[in-house]
Amino acid sequence: MRVSQMFLPTLREVPAEAEIASHQLMLRAGLMRKLAAGIYSFLPLGYRTIRKIEQIIREEMDKEGAQELLMSALLPAEFYKLSRRWEVFGPEMFRLKDRHERDFCLGPTHEEIFTETVKSAIKSYRQLPITLYQIQTKYRDERRPRFGVMRSREFIMKDAYSFDRDENGLDESYQKMYRAYCKAFDRMGLDYTIVDADTGAMGGSGSQEFMVKSEIGEGVIAYCEACGYAANEEKAQCIVQKKDVDMAEQPLEKVATPDVKTIEELMNFFNCSSELFAKTLIYRADDKIVAAMIRGDRDLNETKLQNLLGCIELDMADAHTVREITNAEVGFAGPMGLDIDIIVDPEVAQMKNFVVGANETGYHYKNVNIGRDFKATLVKDIRNIVAGDPCPKCGAPIKTAHGIEVGHIFKLGTKYSKALNCTYLDENGKEQVMVMGCYGIGVNRSMAAIIEQNHDENGIIWPMSVAPYHVIVVPVKVNDETQMNVAQEIYNKLLKAGIEVLLDDRNERPGVKFKDADLIGIPVRITVGKKAGDGIVEFKLRKEQEIQDKTIEEAVHTAIELVKAAER
Ligand code: ATP
Ligand code: MG
Q1: Which atom of ligand 1 is nearest to the CA of 159?
Q2: What distance in angstroms lies between residue 149's CA and the mean position of ligand 2's atoms?
């Protein structure tokens, strides 16, 4: 492709909302354009990389025996109503009606539709196992679309669904997908960690996420260097370090704490550490109001709480509700006298003589003791794990890191097959429910993650496997006939060898062309300059500083070898 003819609208300035490198670079390098919040158009250069990522995934899925198909994105509501997800998805689901007032949605994920399809076609154990997948556009009206295609409202997902006769079969199908994912992410050049993930309140017997470690990742990974344990924040269980608090219970004391609301203000007021406070958080769990107590310096994990309560929606109660329940302004909630369920974190359960809100504006209680002063409805782990907590497996100190979830594999069990009555007849002619797994990869999120891990101040540094083009040939002066001829010769030779190559034939200063080549991240640059007459060109890898003189033949040969090596 000749750069002069390309539709490549690079940008000098990116909007301030592009906070992270991949988002900025995808806009600057002309890979995509924003259409609306969380909605992007992929331009030719960006779309080439998308297609390469898709192809890598496709090849690895096919190798493990999965079969590709394509389903509609416009889906009738009935199957989601059967599984209850018509409600569960809440405002995240894009909903619409057809001219006959029938309900539809734009598919956020396709478990129900695959289940229905398999149900209508598969009757016998002989037809199982089967794994089907598609690479298709998904729609989710995310609460906070951000970071470009990292969290967008329309995105491409590879979603796969396995159907087995029993749990053992599911284990095998799951392992196949695990292998396919490792190979696919390896080929994309991603450095990732596989973590245990939460399976939710609805069951499921196991789940793992593929996390790309990155500062900007919205997920938190807890990992242990001693034993190899790794889990995400929702899953990582906090083990209470048993403290021998043989402290005598002090008499309860009500303390006037006017204008003291935050933990910081409390610490100053009582002149003690946040470990002596217990926060009481009021939540709305579907139609029920509950209280949750954690130590003053901890963060509540809403997924843990939600799983415990088995509710569909969980939100912090609004100020009005807090007032109604506690008879006090926000900031003075406490467990005493509350007539709702109180979920207490185990860490709080072993605290002695601590401080809580008094359910009266401007007051706190001091020397509070559980059992004596209030009762817990349930004592269960509901807080986020933090660095230094004991590893739930071996007890060594846990480390934490941020990560981008690029893929997710999940043993669903029979949740959807039961709801939609997806059964088969076993060897004895007996009806059995199919056992399912589901497996997702975010295609454009993977692309952004690759850029997060492969860039410098000048632009993207594409791994060869997903680069939109392998090589860029840059003649320094396009009106120098010798240079242009040599550039053209190299370009033709590479094209003939099946290399994806750009010829920057624009009449621009070399500095401009080098900058653009760096920005769009083409792995190999061959510069044709003054020495062209002697058959010498400059050879440079995007990821390295060094520039080497090579003969035309050498340059062509090395480029071909590099591309081939990446394909192996
Ligand atoms: P997250 O917790 O980040 O919202 P999720 O758990 O909702 O992700 P899944 O339903 O497991 O995601 O979807 C499978 C994959 O699709 C994810 O691993 C991720 O790579 C991708 N994905 C999910 N939501 C988005 C989104 N809004 N934008 C881009 N990719 C997404
Ligand atoms: Mg999500």
Answers
A1: 14
A2: 13
In this chain, the answer to whether the domains covering 17-236+400-451 and 253-379 adopt an identical fold is: no
State whether the beta carbon of 493 lies less than 6 angstroms from ligand 1: no
Task: Give the integer Cα–Cα distance in Å for 304 and 221.
Answer: 15
Please report which ligand is nearest the Cα atom of 157. Answer: 1
Tell me which H or E stretch contains 230: strand 230-232
Q: Indicate whether residue 411 lines ligand 1 (CB < 6 A).
A: no
Domain extents in the chain: 17-236+400-451, 253-379, 469-567
Nearest residue (by CA) to ligand 1, atom 29, is: 151
Exposure of 2 in the CB half-sphere (CA atoms within 13 A): 10
Rounded CA-CA distance 81/78 in Å is: 5
Query: What are the beta bridge partners of residue 383?
Result: 300
DSSP H or E segment with residue 128: none
Q: 384: closest CA among 308, 291, 280, 298?
A: 298
Q: What's the Cα-to-Cα distance from 288 to each of 294, 311, 317, 326, rounded to whole Å?
A: 20, 9, 10, 15
Residue 497 identity (one-letter amino acid): A
Q: Is the CB of 152 under 6 A from ligand 1?
A: yes
- Which phi and psi angles does 370 have, rounded to 5°? -70, 145
Residue nearest to atom 27 of ligand 1 (CA): 151
CB within 8 Å of 509: residues ≥ 6 apart? none
CB 279 within 8 A of CB 323: no
Q: 17-236+400-451: which CATH architecture?
A: 2-Layer Sandwich (3.30)
For residue 337, the 8-state DSSP code is T
Q: What is the CATH number of domain 469-567?
A: 3.40.50.800
Task: Give, for ligand 1, the residue of 149, 211, 445, 446 to mutate: max count of ligand atoms closer than 8 Å to Cβ.
Answer: 445
10-residue block means of pLDDT along the chain (568 residues)? 96 91 97 97 98 98 98 97 92 97 98 97 97 98 95 98 98 98 98 93 84 94 96 94 79 91 84 89 96 96 95 92 95 94 96 94 95 96 97 96 97 96 97 98 98 97 98 97 98 98 97 97 98 97 98 98 92
Angle at alpha carbon of residue 112, lines to 107 and 113, rounded to 5°: 70
- Encoded tokens for 272: 């003690």
> What is the layout of strands, in order, in the sheet containing 253-256?
253-256, 363-368, 354-357
Q: Residue 360 in contact with residue 332, Cβ under 8 Å?
A: yes
Asked whether 106 and 139 are in contact (CB, 8 A), the reply is yes
For the chain, the C-alpha Rg in angstroms (whole number) is 29
**Residue 201: CB partners within 8 Å, gap ≥ 6?**
306, 307, 308, 309, 310, 311
What fold, for 253-379?
Answer: YbaK protein (3.90.960)
